[in-house]
């Protein structure tokens, strides 16, 4: 049952923010439950609408549309953070501040280490750990609209008020099972991924079916993909709202040189109207790429000889480690991790700094002596 009276402090002015800044700057490092409410529709960047903080005694709701948030981000970096399913939250915070807390723990990851699956939602997490059923009726709120209703603010507050006690409960369980440090390390690894800047030069590799293209066609796709990323970022547009990935692939495959040929590909009319001339120029430019500068062919790991046998052997290893360690298989290693390991094994020049995840961190002692005979 939800608490009838949800206590929180709404901060919309610099004067209201000042006491919180003093607390965060003067207090020894604390564990803070943090959450964000945001809007992401047709934009490249999510738009922050509300920031929630709970220190175990007081819940703060901060309005980023009214406040200078820079001093707050700096003060928050002095403390330890707890979030649930932190991917999008950290993506927003990274863009706005460029810094995270002293440590960052994802309770979704912690719950996964306890066998609750790798994608446990917040509502189910709180029900499981605290036996409290949350109302998610305000989940579709436009968090950029003002004023926000009391029910919307209460909904946002509960996202952190219950998060902290639930975290403390699973932390104890993880420590009892000797898994807390591994969960903390896994959280840190995934948080670090949010600090990586998208490489425009390699964006073409993420286009579906790029592996089907020749090196010359990949040169065109590379130019088009880099342009699309630049457009998305500079104009704050969702990347497929610039030009769809399927369109880029078709352009690289057939390389039209006139508007008539471009129209003949049956591409979306809006894309042609807005970008048609520019796309033709980009294709013409990319076709001038020297052969020596063509991207290497994209060879899928599944096409390597012996892949099917190797991946099955790796899955057996994961099953064995799961049985012996008590850790769920989906926490130990995803198929992507197994593919990463095989890709590394089959490289001619293995680099120590490029060790696959199976051979690093908390996974290393579990897998190092078991997978070396597979590939």
From TrEMBL:
<dbReference type="InterPro" id="IPR002562">
    <property type="entry name" value="3'-5'_exonuclease_dom"/>
</dbReference>
<keyword id="KW-0819">tRNA processing</keyword>
<dbReference type="Pfam" id="PF21293">
    <property type="entry name" value="RNAseD_HRDC_C"/>
</dbReference>
<keyword id="KW-0540">Nuclease</keyword>
<dbReference type="InterPro" id="IPR044876">
    <property type="entry name" value="HRDC_dom_sf"/>
</dbReference>
<dbReference type="InterPro" id="IPR051086">
    <property type="entry name" value="RNase_D-like"/>
</dbReference>
<dbReference type="InterPro" id="IPR010997">
    <property type="entry name" value="HRDC-like_sf"/>
</dbReference>
<feature type="domain" description="HRDC">
    <location>
        <begin position="214"/>
        <end position="293"/>
    </location>
</feature>
<keyword id="KW-0269">Exonuclease</keyword>
<dbReference type="Pfam" id="PF00570">
    <property type="entry name" value="HRDC"/>
</dbReference>
<keyword id="KW-0378">Hydrolase</keyword>
<dbReference type="InterPro" id="IPR012337">
    <property type="entry name" value="RNaseH-like_sf"/>
</dbReference>
<dbReference type="InterPro" id="IPR048579">
    <property type="entry name" value="RNAseD_HRDC_C"/>
</dbReference>
<dbReference type="Pfam" id="PF01612">
    <property type="entry name" value="DNA_pol_A_exo1"/>
</dbReference>
<comment type="similarity">
    <text>Belongs to the RNase D family.</text>
</comment>
<protein>
    <recommendedName>
        <fullName>Ribonuclease D</fullName>
        <ecNumber>3.1.13.5</ecNumber>
    </recommendedName>
</protein>
<comment type="function">
    <text>Exonuclease involved in the 3' processing of various precursor tRNAs. Initiates hydrolysis at the 3'-terminus of an RNA molecule and releases 5'-mononucleotides.</text>
</comment>
<dbReference type="InterPro" id="IPR006292">
    <property type="entry name" value="RNase_D"/>
</dbReference>
<dbReference type="InterPro" id="IPR002121">
    <property type="entry name" value="HRDC_dom"/>
</dbReference>
<dbReference type="InterPro" id="IPR036397">
    <property type="entry name" value="RNaseH_sf"/>
</dbReference>
<keyword id="KW-0963">Cytoplasm</keyword>
